Amino acid sequence: MKIIMKFGGTSLGSADKVRNVSKIVKDYSVNNQIILVASALSGVTNSLVRLSELVKTSNSEKIVNELEKLSELHTNISKNSIKDPNIENEVLESISSILDELKRLLEGIISLGEITPRSRDRIISFGERLSVLVVTGALKDIGINAKKFTGAEAGIVTDEEYGEANPLMSITKMKISKTLQPLLSKGIVPVVTGFMAATQTGDITTLGRGGSDFTATILGAAISADEVWICTDVNGMMTTDPKIMPNARTIPQLSYSEALEMTVFGAKALHPRALEPAQENKISVRVKNTFNLSGSDTLISNDQSIVRGKVAKSVALIKDVAMVNIGGAGMVGKPGIAAKVFDTFAREGINILMISQSVSEANISLVIRRNHLEKAVNTLEISLLGRGFVNSVNAEDDVGVIAVVGAGMQGSQGVAARVFNALAKKGINIRMIAQGSSELNISIVIKEKNCENAVKAIHEEFEMDTP
Amino acid sequence: MRLILIGYGVVAQSLTKILTVRKQEILERHGMHPRVVAIVDKGGLALNTKGLDLERVESIKKKYGTVASIPEYGRPGKPAQDIIGSLDAEVVIEATPTNLETGEPGTSHIEEALKAGKHVITVNKGPLALALPALTEMATYNGVHLRFSGTVGGGTPILDFGRNCLSFDRLLSIEGILNGSTNYMLTEMEKHGSTFEEALNEAQIKGYAEADPSLDVDGLDAAAKLTIMANWFTDKDVTLKDISVEGIRDIKPEDLKEASKRGFAIKLIGRIDKKMKVGPTELKTSDPLCIGGTLNAVKFHSEFAGDEIIIGKGAGGPETASSILRDLLNIREKM
Given this model, what pLDDT does residue A267 score? Predict the structure, then answer.
């Protein structure tokens, strides 16, 4: 099989963990062709983000401090995960030369006195450049013919949306067919930096949050991999948060659309954008636990399997949200109010999670992230109040969203009724409801204090703990 | 409109000739004033930002073998890479020889031009057969046009014709004779009972086949054209490796004779339906697609309009050069 294996930062957080990853690659490379995608080591990207903030203040003491910590971390893990002194020296030298490059870059930005999205991308991509050095060294140390690549060297070409770049897939496919593809049949394991790519003219870009997952599925699509493995620290995607429901279970199979719904609603194992190249090219994605690789996992594929009677597959809880209600009798039959609301939010960069409007049109309810609430209320008041249509903008910041997901809900009657009944039995009041016409999910807003009980009630009602 | 011309072989020389002879007409009828600001060949390049004197360039090329020998404007030894991105021009015309293994140097030339925001016209099949989806994406991303009507059918506007047939109709299949030299050989073998080797020899003497005939007789040239058509007419992203290819080396005169008795002829046919395939195929001699000699023919079979066939010369310097002008006009209209 051709497998892309992506290891996140938590899978690479210590020398033992790096050795564990190299052993996994060694075991699987006997019968498979493997491309490894590595994230930055645990905590490193955050440190680089701090550095990109620090350059604005030119606080050289703190900058030196951060750089020393980075050097120490990578040096220690390399020393403890690589035995062969030649390989170790080579890796240590490369680490120090890359950190020198970073230092020079930071100095340059300080003297320029401005940091652009483009230079920020260059800074935060250093984490992956360092981690592939360590991982490639550890692989070579146990006799694997590994070769490191930056995403740019591998041939991932993106547009110029620095910070959240999008791949130009056809160009990327062509480039990768020349760079990585020929190595696979020679038994070489390419180790590619996650998260980082470049524009057509070679300027470094990053792929945004969850970027390493995105790198993995882009590579998977480019070489028509049999599977893309997202190796993380949980047992695949679960029916719900096991901290709330101890008998939560790994879901063995999901369709792309189901997985997309779940990732949008906060399933941490995978980033929604990462599913795009997989879905488009029908590449299967497996979410696995690095520390329990043979344990249960989730296969995301084109197959929309529906177990009889299992209409809902998972229930997710999203906290840190708030609800905004816009009301007024003047809104009835008045076109353009909703457009005005969305436009206001778009201008302020506020993302809307849920929308609901009654047929009477006297009220629009919206759910947004809680940290946007004050900005949202104030800008809405400025643009809507006192103009004769809207007479109230209210906010509730003590709410949470419960999302029930499953392809089996399509065309299946009574699902919503079962959800409402389960909540009613526990005396939980529903504040707002939304269901997309895809019928893949029902989202409801309730008071935050009831959230955990609601998750439990729904998990029990749909018997999610049994296969 | 400023043009950079890369590759100065038969086709490109025919182009500069047409540009010289028809200068007035092109200006009056189409409002276009093409200036060739640079020409690159193996020996180097000739460059004049105000536009080269094409008659002079032609005579220098004939006399010394390279345009770089032109006094004042010649730059011997300078490669195309030095000017594609940096020299101001609106359109780059890629006319270097086809290489179906690496696609180079054409692919790099085209990439460089698209990245620099220049429109590209190519008559080189190599880059398209190996990387058309990528090059199309690059053109779209950079907001420029990539045109290549001369790569299929030479001067015969097969790609444009097909697009017109298919607007508002659904394509069910395309099949055609896409390679003139093999069609000539098969016609000879059928008429005179000659063997494959004899027919090949004959074709080489008449100048219909190259010294290295493998691209033609092994079906690769036809497969490259089929790749271009598949990308152009369908929404599939296709490269040469997606096509199953069989040539005509194993065909015996007896096979042709036997087929002919039953009212059939054997032709090297490229076909796109659910699959994509190039190989020897029996055609009814009464089929309008069943043409002889060096001609090319393509049949579009669509859901409502039925069969539509276009027949014409598949190669030749002036013919292919005319397709470049057609592309140029097309780009001009969209500018």
Answer: 64
**Higher pLDDT, residue A306 or A340:** A340
Residue type, B111: E
Which residues in chain A touch residue B130, judged by CB atoms under 8 angstroms apart? 174
| Higher pLDDT pick, B38 / A266 | B38
Closest residue in A to B132 (Cα) is A170
Interchain CB contacts (distance < 8 Å): A and B? 25
Give the domains, in start order, of chain A with CATH numbers: 2-232 (3.40.1160.10), 314-461 (3.30.2130.10)
Strand order in the sheet with A204-206: A157-158, A196-199, A204-206
CB–CB of A6/A213 below 8 Å? yes
For the stretch B256-312, pLDDT in tens is 999 999 999 999 999 999 899 999 999 999 999 999 988 999 999 988 888 999 999
| B316 vs B297: CA distance, rounded Å | 15
CA-nearest residue to B236 within chain A is A170
d(CA B84, CA B6): 9
Q: What share of chain B is helix, strand, coil (3-state, %, to 5)?
A: 45, 20, 35
Q: And the tokens for B51?
A: 């536009």
| CA–CA dist B21, B272 (Å, integer) | 40
Contact across the interface for A173 and B134, Cβ inside 8 Å: yes
pLDDT at A77 over 70: yes
**DSSP character at residue B237:** -
Would the ipTM clear 0.85, i.e. be above it? Answer: no
DSSP A298-310: EEEES-----TT-
Average pLDDT, chain A: 91
Q: Assess whether pLDDT exceeds 90 at residue A332.
A: no
Report the predicted TM-score, pTM, of the whole model to 2 decimal places. Answer: 0.85
Pairing relationship of beta strands A441-447 and A392-405 according to DSSP bridges: antiparallel
**Cβ of A173 and B133 within 8 Å?**
yes
Please enumerate residues of B whose Cβ is less than 8 A from a Cβ of A.
Answer: 115, 130-131, 133-134, 136-138, 141-142, 237
CA-to-CA distance for B144 and B132, rounded, in angstroms? 15
Report chain A residues touching chain B, CB-CB < 8 A. 159, 168-171, 173-175, 200-201
B128: nearest CA partner in chain A: A174
Sheet containing B306-313: order of strands: B244-245, B276-284, B264-272, B171-177, B295-302, B306-313
- Strands (DSSP E) contained in A370-440 are 392-405, 430-435
Whole-number Å distance between alpha carbons of A316 and A401: 8
Q: Is A385 helix (H, G, I), strand (E, B) or coil?
A: strand
CA distance linking residue B6 with residue B23, whole number of Å: 21
What confidence tens digit (pLDDT) does each residue in A434-458 have?
Answer: 886 667 889 999 999 999 999 999 9
Q: Rounded distance, CA A198 to CA A192, Å?
A: 13
Q: Are A8 and A231 in contact (CB under 8 A)?
A: yes
Which residue, among A15, B262, A22, has the nearest Cα to A5 in the 3D structure?
A: A22
**pLDDT higher than 90, residue A285:** yes
| The token pair that represents A50 in the structure block | 């701090």
Q: How confident is residue A261, by pLDDT bands cut at 50, 70 and 90?
A: confident
